[in-house]
Amino acid sequence: MPDIGKNIVGVVLGCNNYEIVDLGVMVPAAKILQTAVEQRVDAIGLSGLITPSLEEMEHVAKEMERLKLDLPLLIGGATTSRQHTAIKIAPHYSQTTVHVLDASRAVGVVAKLLDSDQKSDFDTENRELQAELREVYGRRTRKPLVSYEEARSNRLKIDWDAETLPRPSILGRQVDTDQSLEELVPYIDWTFFFTAWELKGRFPKVLDHPRYGQAARELYANAQALLERIVKDGLLSAKAAWGLWPAHSEDDDIVLFNDEARQDELVRFPMLRQQEAKPDDSMPHRSLADFVAPAESGQTDFVGAFAVNAGIGVDAMVARYEADHDDYNAIMTKALADRLAEAYAELLHERVRRIWGFGHDERLTKDDLVAERYRGIRPAFGYPACPDHTLRGVQWDLLQAETQAGLRLTETYAAVPTAAASGIYLAHPQARYFAVGRLGRDQVVSYAERTGMSLQEAERWLKPNLGYEP
Ligand code: B12
In the chain, where are the structural domains located? Predict the structure, then answer.
């Protein structure tokens, strides 16, 4: 993971006459290293879309050291950074470990690493930069953490009497087996499509970009043509599992029930709470649980969940293009499927708002949807407000997402096919996205108890958020 970033780098390097051995996604370290040795490769590259893959990168670096490999290690992907590479990965491996920001830089980096005249200077510069990044990291001043107890007593206090919470007209798990793709097309947010091709800028302005407007227009025309074929010939299909349930918050847990009396517990999503000290006492320490009415409020609340899959048929299309050595259309197919997945999440959320009883009067334009000018949010496990990816496992059981929507979860809780989006629905008008940030050990101990994980496991999954050394 990620699929697209890795593929683009592979294609760009391939165009520059490098031979790429692409092992695919979710490949165990042992297989990567064995292949590297057997095929006598010149460098190893790793790519990561969601944070659990960062941990695996550290493992690969340690294994490379243990096996005394003498190969440069290249790191890339949406959740990686030069800081992370310098602080968490490079210290485990004594050979060159370098972060590569994008595909266009990959060629220069690889060329230098494989050229005996340039390698040593490049390596020295890279090590100096990484030492500096580690030093800056060591010196940084960080906001102190308040105790978990204090954070909990400073929750966002919603006035639950201010309004009646609407009751959805449909409750329980639902499955949409054959979503029309045509209906999804107007919901596509094209901006990230261009980002995937390194043409950064908001759509449609990017089409007139002074430097790459022409390239953007050509890409857009090709995308439209392929998308039209996908829709007309039904080359891809999309499914979703979703639902709305009676719910309450219990301290920092969001609890969903089978019955409207809220006696028969269905699932529980333990949430995390901000612990970083606030500059101003009037600011709450937020948790997503704050947006759901507690039983004591006397209000009856509801919470939803969804998982959409727009990747059915992608593998077959990609295999056909790859057999024709048509990398461009193989990547284009994946990029379009990713767009359709996000478009589906947007469309489904709009439908759900109507079912929930507050979306009827929305008169939102396409831009309003992109800017999320509607009531309610749909955070995904892995987003900064709920960074623990493992809750996707609980969500999958609730939705039966594997059997109903054809979405498998990997060991690191990534969904396959990749063109998938999922999350929970929270409806309160005050519900907002935020970042939980760093967590204290007291909260992680409580979280481990609440989720049934050992402390060590909880620390592993919450690693990027730990405000202490475990
Ligand atoms: C597009 C996108 C998606 C697409 C899929 C993208 C894909 N196929 O790779 C879709 C819509 C499917 C998606 C889904 C999800 N996403 Co998403 N997604 C993004 C987004 C907006 C952009 C990523 C992207 O494609 N960028 C363009 C590509 C080309 O860039 P890239 O991957 O970074 O690759 C470049 C470089 O990194 C480098 N590179 C990459 N690999 C390598 C390897 C080597 C060796 C080298 C040298 C270089 C290199 O070169 C590449 C080309 O220039 C990011 C946010 C962001 N702004 O980054 C979130 C983001 C990655 N997603 C996130 C999440 C949580 C998810 C979901 C779990 C949640 C959801 N929405 O349902 C799902 C998971 C899907 C799954 N299958 O499990 C989080 C991850 C956070 C985390 N802590 O883990 C992010 C960071 C958003 C956020 N702010 O929270 N996502």
Answer: 3-139, 148-180+237-438
Residue nearest to atom 25 of ligand 1 (CA): 196
Report the phi/psi class of residue 298: left, alpha or beta, with left for phi > 0 and alpha for psi in -120 to 50: left
Q: What is the pLDDT of residues 188-235, one digit of tens each?
A: 999 999 988 888 899 999 999 999 999 999 999 999 999 999 999 999
Going by CA atoms, what residue is nearest to atom 83 of ligand 1? Answer: 51
Residue whose Cα lies nearest atom 12 of ligand 1: it is: 419
Contact by Cβ (8 Å): 84, 54: yes
Q: Are 3-139 and 148-180+237-438 equal in CATH topology? A: no
Q: If we measure between CA atoms, which residue out of 94, 63, 89 comes closest to residue 75? A: 89
pTM above 0.90, yes or no: yes
**CB burial of residue 299 (10 Å; 0-12, 13-18, 19+):** middle
- Tracing tokens 């996000």 back to the chain, one arrives at 342
State the distance from the centre of ligand 1 to the C-alpha of 29, rounded, in angstroms: 21
Residue ranges around ligand 1 (CB below 6 Å): 2-6, 8-9, 45-47, 49-51, 74, 76-79, 100, 102-103, 106, 192, 195-196, 198, 338, 341-342, 380, 382-383, 387, 414-415, 418-423
From ligand 1's centre to the CA of 161, what distance in Å? 40
Residue-wise pLDDT for 377-405, tens only, equals 999 999 999 999 999 999 999 999 999 99
CATH number of this structure's domain 3-139, picked from the four choices 3.75.10.10, 3.40.50.150, 3.40.50.280, 3.40.50.300: 3.40.50.280
Domain 148-180+237-438, CATH 3.20.20.70 — does that match? no
